[in-house]
Each structure stands twice: as C-alpha cells, then as structure tokens.
Amino acid sequence: MSRMSSLFALRLPAPKHPRSMRTLSVALALLACLCSLSVPTTAQSAPGIVPEKIYIKAGHLFDSTSDSLRENMVLVIAGERIAQVAPAADVNIPPGARVVDLSKDWVLPGLIDCHTHLEVRADQYDPINEVRATPFMGGFNGVVNANKTLMAGFTGVRDVGSQPFFAVDLRNAINSGYIPGPRMVASGPPISITGGHGDMNGFAPAVSNMMYPAEKDFAIVDSPDEMRHVVRAQIKYGVDVIKILATGGVLSAGDSPGAEQLTYDEMKVAVDTAHRAGRKVAAHAHGTQGIKDAVRAGVDSIEHGSLIDAEGIQMMKQRGTYLVADIYNDDYILGNAAKFGLGQEMIDKEKMVGKLQRENFAKAVAAGVKIAFGTDAGVYPHGDNARQFYYMVKFGMTPAGAIRAATSSAADLIDRSRDQGTLEAGKYADVIALNANPLENVRVLEHVGFVMKGGVVYKDELGATQK
Ligand code: ARG
C-alpha cells in the first residue's frame, strides 16, 4: 500500500462517550473560550456519585414526540442525559439549584443534519485544491466546521463522505471531548465506480492515482466482489454508515446525474454486507432508474432524489426508505459557487436538476414518503444548515414536520433514536432554544440562540444561564 493509505491504517481508538458530569460553571467557562475552539476540562464524576442536576425552564417546549408545543415545562438534566420532562407545576426546583431559564423561549431537541461533509469547504470548488494540500487539510477544515455546525444548533450529523477515514477520526476526537462538535455518524469515502461521481476525473492517470492511492481498498469498485471487500474494509476501520454512489452527480467532472453508475447487483451486495454488520446504507441517487434500483437493493435512504418519478416515490413509501433531499443547495451553487472555482459543466448540470429536485421533493412529501433532514453542507458554508427549513416548508412540509425531519425522523434514520431526536427522559440532554416560534416562521431556526449538548452549554445568546 502507498504512503497515504498507510497513514490511514493506524488503529483508531474506540469511540468513547464522555460519562462525566459537566457542571454549569464548566459550561460557562467553555462559553468564554469558544472563539478559540477550546474544550472544557470535564469534572470526572466518580462512580456512585449522583451528578448535580440542571433545571431547564422551557416556556414553549417542542419535544418532537408530536407536532405540538407544550407550555411551561421543566427539563431536569442529570449529567449528560435528561432525567425528567414535566409541567413546571410538578417539578420542585430546590433553592440554589442550577437553573437554565428559557421560560420565555422555544425549546427543541438539538437538530440533526443527515448529509454533511465536514471536511469540505464551500469556498474551494476547483478540484486542483485536492493536490495543493495534504489530507491533513481536511482535518483542519473538519475541526472548524464541526464547531460551526454545533453553534448553529446541530448537535448531530451523519457525515457521508470524506477522504479515508478522516470522518472517523473527527468523530472520535469529538466523542473523547477533545474538540467541540456534533455527535457524528461517520461514513468512509463514498463508494463509486471507476470514473463515477466519487472518482477523480479529468486528470492524467499519474495525477489521479496520486490523489487517491487507497481508492481500490476504500472507494472504487467495479464488481459485486469488489463492493463486498470495500464495505468490509470500511467497517474494519470504524465507519458507522456506508455511503454508495448509485448515479452520477452534479459536482463531479465527466458524468451525468441522471445516469446509473453502480449496478443493482453491486448495490445489493453493499446493503447485504453493511446490514449484516449493523450498518445502514445511504445512496446518493439523482437519476430515476438509479433511485429505483437502490431502493430495490434495500438502501436505507436516497440522498438527493432529484429525478425521482411516481413509481420511485411509491417504492420508497412502500418500503419506508427515507428521502434526504438537499433542496437548499441550488441557491448557493447557482449564486456563489462560480466565484469559488466551480466549472461551467457543473453549473449547467445544477440548472438541469435543481428545480426538478424541489418539485419532486414536494411530490414525495405529498405522497407520504419518510423525510429526513440533510443538506450536503460543505457544498454551501457549514453553519448555514438551517436555511433548508424554509425550502422544506415552501415545498410542502409543515414547520413541525420539517423540524421532526431534523430531529425524531433523523434520529430514526441514523439509528440513534435511543439517544437523540426527542426531549424525553433517558435521551442525551441535547437541547436548543430560540427566542421566536419556529412553528409560525421556520426561518427563526437560522438563528439558534442557545445550544446544549450532553448537558454542556456551548452557546447562550439568550442569557439563559445568567437569569
Ligand atoms: N453533491 C451533490 C452532487 O454533486 C450536490 C447536488 C447539489 N444540487 C442539488 N440540486 N441538490 O451531485
């Protein structure tokens, strides 16, 4: 194996969920140093010691177990989890207790974006950037982007594609408490055919091979057997989810979004191999036939779904396949990307699919296809994730439905319903708050004023911890 692949073959530590109780004062210390991306040293609680509680007064609570608000509630946080959610009248807050006062605000579960690329910058489209820096650059990007994502109220992401296996490293660094960021469900490199959406096209072989020396092992497949190997190899190195590229794409040279790339047989092997290991499969698919073959092969979600037809919609509904449609992207790609090096070929492809994708999303919503929130952050700037809510509502969802797509439904898709997605006893204390009602205007989610993850306050522009 090459130099670069041996770099990524290092044994990675198993993900570790911090168990320690983090006090509010530690959290406030964090607030003071957020700009420098520092992380609080956590007070380790000895086994058997009951963690100090935090009482969150929630004026208007959207807990994501239903589509409605509950007024005047209290969330009792013990350590990193929620111990109790109850009407304020039923909770006795002891004098001197630590209180987070959101009694005038709207309180929601931390949001989850099911389609991010944390290592990617939205101000660098020219593929030449891939050879200008070492893969470590992706790591630097990831540290910054993970923080931006968390500050925007996204306490969870499913990251669906990075160079080998940086997303796993980033996930582990966040889980160990070393850097701030959302809880990550991490994929390896998206699995592509030779010359497909995930390959480096348009370069001489020597350059192309220099870019991805490990691709045969981790990213490029041309038969069911190669697919089986690559899925197993990715799982060996710690990925949580498998990302496959069923069709061509917009932001890749030399292919077409409408064209099927992986075969049904290759995708079937991907799904069987991944599911056998307890991993879900996300399929990038714009094209009509590729979507249907991916659904038939049993993938858990269709990403983009741009050119889906009525039959594809019915198939997804019947099988309960999630649609994760990045319907904000079109604005940014057509508005800003050219000045950051996006070529005319890609702009033309975006013009082909962008509008249709939104219209077809509306049809899928109307038909009752399961929707999970996913934006393709990295194509547009990280931290702007919530801009997509507006389009989800414009194209047929209710505000409550769009929020549930980014909370309870997202947690279901990424297999984290036990821990995330709703505000209920037993879940992680991943809590955000807004000073306006998102059910009246979903755009207020673009300015999340308060972020708590695992009982630690990372952002408090609402003054909730000072009252
Ligand atoms: N990563 C996707 C691709 O290159 C982005 C598609 C963006 N366009 C859109 N209309 N959603 O195919």
Distance between the termini: 58 Å
Which strand order does the major sheet show? 3-2-1-4-12-13-14
Using the alpha-carbon principal axes, give the shape.
globular
Radius of gyration (CA) equals 22 Å
Largest sheet entry:
7 strands, mixed
- Low-confidence parts, pLDDT < 50 over ≥5 residues? 1-45
Which structural class should the secondary elements be placed in?
A: alpha/beta
CATH domain class of the largest domain: Alpha Beta
Structural domain count: 2
Small-molecule components bound: arginine
Number of helices: 16
As for the CATH topology of the largest domain, it is TIM Barrel
Helix share, percent: 25-40%
Got a strand count?
14
The succession of helices and strands, N to C, reads HHEEEEEHHEHEHHHEHEHEHEHHHHHEEE
User: Which whole number gives the mean pLDDT?
Assistant: 89
Beta-strand proportion: 15-25%
Overall CATH architecture of the largest domain: Alpha-Beta Barrel
Q: Can you identify the CATH superfamily of the largest domain?
A: Metal-dependent hydrolases
What's the helix and strand layout?
Blueprint: H1 3-8, H2 24-32, E1 53-61, E2 70-78, E3 81-87, E4 98-109, E5 111-116, H3 129-132, H4 136-151, E6 154-159, H5 166-175, E7 183-186, H6 205-211, H7 215-218, H8 224-236, E8 241-245, H9 264-276, E9 280-285, H10 288-297, E10 301-304, H11 310-319, E11 322-324, H12 329-336, H13 344-367, H14 388-394, H15 399-405, H16 408-413, E12 431-434, E13 450-453, E14 456-460
Parallel strand pairs: 1-4, 5-6, 6-7, 8-9, 9-10, 10-11
Antiparallel strand pairs: 1-2, 2-3, 4-12, 12-13, 13-14
Helix pairs in contact: 8-9, 9-10, 10-11, 12-13
